[in-house]
Amino acid sequence: MAMDLDEYRNLDIKEIGAWPLPAKLAVFLIIFVLIQTAAYFTFWQDQITQNTEATNKEQTLKDEYLDKKRRAVNLDAYKQQLVEIRQSLSELLKQLPKKSEMDALLTDINQAGVGRGLSFALFKPASQEIKTAEMAELPIQVQVSGSYHDFAQFASDIAQLPRIVNLKDIDISTSSKDGGMVMSATAKTFRYLDQQEIDEMSAQKQPEPGK
Fold first, then answer.
1. Strands (DSSP E) found in the chain
2. Which superkingdom (predicted)?
3. Percentage of the chain modeled with pLDDT above 90
């Protein structure tokens, strides 16, 4: 027989054994939920956290394994790329003159301008080269007079030289003397260091004994 709300309110906890089944089930359900909640915070929470961390670590290790496997599979291709890069670098280095060839290169730059009918007002290589680990850079201050067309042809001729020469800081203006055009620029050429220079630079970088 169903009980009304007042009868549920008058239930005595001391007489729980005599309670109707629905009331007993409700109390059992509440106690079960409380036990599960207490167990979660007391025992299971740390285990769940550890399990989550272990799962994440496992996924990270799988990703690392797959990445290393992919690299291993492509190892031959990487080696071939390295060979090609070294060959390309070797070809580029061949375009850099030796120290003994610098005078000839400077003459070629000068002749490129003269051949286009340009008049040199300034052709001044820097007094010192700028050296790096493998090469030396020589800036050359250039000032020539002529026409726009001649300037363009001169720049084209410089680009087609067998050695690497870059024209930078180009400035074109009108001459105050005769109204003609004047181009000022910095021509940068490069050469690779000989073994003696490389050895000297390495010795300079080594710390002195006792320091």
1. 119-125, 130-131, 135-146, 165-174, 181-192
2. Bacteria
3. 10
